[in-house]
Amino acid sequence: MDSKPTTTGSRRAAGSGLTRRRLLATGAAVGLAATAGCLDTREGAVPEPVVTDDRIDEDWRLVDESNEVIFEESLGPITLQALEHTHIYEYVPVAEALVETLGAEGSPVLFFATRVDIRPAIDRLPGGVGLGRLMEEIRPAAEEAFRRQLDEGGVEDVTLEETDSTTVASGHTATTALFTARYPIEGETPLPDGSTEPVDDVVEIEARLGVWHDGTDVIVSGGAYPTEPLNDVLSRALPDDVPETPLLDEVDDTHEDALATEPETFAETVDALLISVE
């Protein structure tokens, strides 16, 4: 089997935190070599993760996708692999509003969905042998990879605040994590006299992550959003002697609404998308 990764897009997948050390430890724990003959293996590419909440089609766009082998190691008579398929989305109204107001690319409102397939399927041994140990290894690895994904999206200083659990739409139990972070906003805004004023500020961010096993694969999903309306951030970034109104005077209603969105609205949306991934 070809061990070279096949990747579409520039960002690393959430499953890429599955390191050689972690997978080797898991394989040893379940007696992988001894059970090689009864393990099933999917052929071909990993199916894409599907976000079943309709909001993903209304206000979000796919900005990156990867489908790759993230680990491969020979263990006695078998070869153990971890493969992933990741989709990365950005919230279109905010991304376009920041382009219009500041000429800035990117968005602090992001969502990720990943499916990880372990081959052979040590996570599907009869009686769930090995699944618990596998998930113990995958959860911290997924958190580490989530930090990298946020970093590649421009989010900085990612800090884990708390962990919990929740029931996802498919009925499975996910381990969840809440992070705080910061997102720099830089650009220029036009002033009434025809000049421009640099805008350079930092938005406080919350990010949520969920990890669970759906009976076949490991699902990793999560998103990030600002903890205050972005129009407050942009107005605050202007010098004291500059009126706040010119920043939004020429913005259409859709973009103005996006910049004025309360963090509770984003949190509700990210939570709904997170639990809807299949």
Q: What structural category arises from helix and sheet content?
A: alpha+beta
Spans of 5+ residues with little confidence (pLDDT < 50)? 1-30
- Helix % is 25-40%
Termini Cα gap: 27 Å
How do the helices and strands follow one another from N- to C-terminus? HHEEHEHEEEEHHHH
Q: How much beta, percentage-wise?
A: 25-35%
Number of helices: 8
Radius of gyration: 21 Å
* Largest sheet entry: 7 strands, antiparallel
Strand order of the largest sheet: 1-2-3-7-6-5-4
What oligomeric assembly is this protein in?
A: single chain
Mean pLDDT: 79
The backbone outline, from C-alpha atoms, is elongated
Beta strand count = 7
| Whole-number total of structural domains | 1
Structure notes:
- The structure is a single chain.
- This protein is an alpha+beta fold.
- The chain has one domain.
- It is 29% helix and 35% strand.
- The chain contains eight helices and seven strands.
- A hairpin with a 5-residue loop joins β5 and β6.
- α1 runs antiparallel to α4 and α3 crosses α7.
- The two termini are 27 Å apart.
- The N terminus is likely disordered.
Short description:
The protein is α+β, with helices and mostly antiparallel strands and 278 residues long.
Topology:
Elements: H1 20-29, H2 55-59, E1 60-75, E2 78-91, H3 92-102, E3 110-119, H4 131-152, E4 156-167, E5 173-190, E6 196-213, E7 218-226, H5 230-237, H6 246-249, H7 253-259, H8 263-276
Antiparallel strand pairs: 1-2, 2-3, 3-7, 4-5, 5-6, 6-7
Helix pairs in contact: 1-4, 3-7
